[in-house]
Specification:
Helix content is 77%, strand content 1%. It is mainly α.
Length: 320
């Protein structure tokens, strides 16, 4: 994301300042935790999408920075809550909030971040941005719950999988792009175009994330982790729908009863590779990437458009 970093050099500095202000509280424990959250921040991919989509339509302004802060506040809130749900003790090589301050504090911190984001928009009457992001929170919850519901019977349809990742992952990125567009574009068509651009990019991003489970790269989570958690991702769904009855029975039995057995999990990964599950998922990832590119190419060539193209390529070419 080198080009995006150069184009947004000034804007990212201002965003950092605005985001820190948005985190401030009158409770010393909260301030301590907020400082810890800022210290372990990630790539800030979503705020970059907000800022670049805004730049595509005009000059970044105060509303853009508030939208970027809201997106990052909501994203951080979901990560804190996810770590509680998943009983995760680490995130990005740092201890999770629940590991250091226990579940009750972590849940309250997530709630605080969510409320701070909503208030940031309400106090400044950014109702269009608030509507966009509130819809994302709803869709993220629905996506997670749909995954919980459908994964139990280990018979997940490919279309259902797309609905799940559209909600749990793509909706926030779609909302980030739409929120940025809301701050500079006046035509609703442009805002919807960039929402779809973000959605397709988010779909490609999640499929890439699912593919890491079948590789050997050090990506911050163990290979086979999704299988251990009984998550049906696209490589596995394709394999289950196309393999022999014996392989299917072995895969289902492993996921249900032996998902902590390293040898059996490795055997499942081998079957997925042999049946073309990896290649199929890679092709679908490229399909969504191209859908995002088609929308981006509706806009005139510019350094900002080039930076957004770089961001799309990052989602599909990243090694972590």
């Amino acid at each position: 994301m080198i080009l995006a970093g150069k184009i947004l050099e000034h804007e990212l500095v201002v965003f950092e300042s605005e985001f820190r202000k948005a985190l401030q509280s009158k409770v010393s424990l909260l301030d301590k935790i907020m400082h810890y959250i800022v210290k372990r921040k990630g790539k800030q991919m979503r705020p970059r999408f907000v800022l670049l989509c805004a730049k595509l339509g005009g000059e970044v302004n105060a509303k853009t920075y508030r939208a970027a802060s809201l997106v990052e506040l909501l994203h951080t809130a979901t990560l804190v809550h996810d770590d509680v749900v998943d009983e995760a003790l680490e995130r990005r090589s740092f201890f999770s909030i629940n590991a250091l301050w226990k579940n009750k504090v972590a849940v309250l911190v997530g709630d605080y971040l969510l409320s701070k984001g909503l208030l940031l928009s309400l106090e400044n009457k950014d109702y269009d941005v608030l509507e966009v992001l509130s819809t994302a929170v709803k869709e993220m919850s629905e996506g997670e719950l749909l995954q919980q519901e459908k994964s139990r019977n280990l018979n997940l349809d490919e279309d259902v999988y797309y609905n799940i990742i559209k909600g749990k992952t793509a909706s926030l990125l779609a909302s980030a792009c739409a929120a940025g567009a809301c701050s500079t574009f006046s035509d609703e068509k442009d805002i919807n175009n960039l929402r779809l651009f973000g959605e397709y990019t988010g779909m490609a991003f999640q499929i890439k994330d699912d593919l890491f489970d079948y590789g050997n790269a050090d990506v911050g989570k163990p290979t086979g982790n999704d299988i251990k958690e009984k998550k049906l991702t696209l490589p596995l769904i394709y394999t289950l729908n196309n393999c022999s009855s014996n392989d299917k029975a072995f895969i289902i039995n492993t996921i249900k009863n032996h998902n902590r057995n390293k040898d059996k999990v490795a055997a499942v990964i081998q079957i997925v590779n042999q049946q073309g599950g990896i290649l199929y998922a890679e092709n679908r990832m490229q399909y969504f990437r191209q859908k995002a590119m088609d929308i981006l190419l509706l806009y005139p060539s510019s350094p900002v458009r080039d930076a957004l193209e770089e961001m799309i390529n990052f989602t599909t070419n990243r090694n972590y």
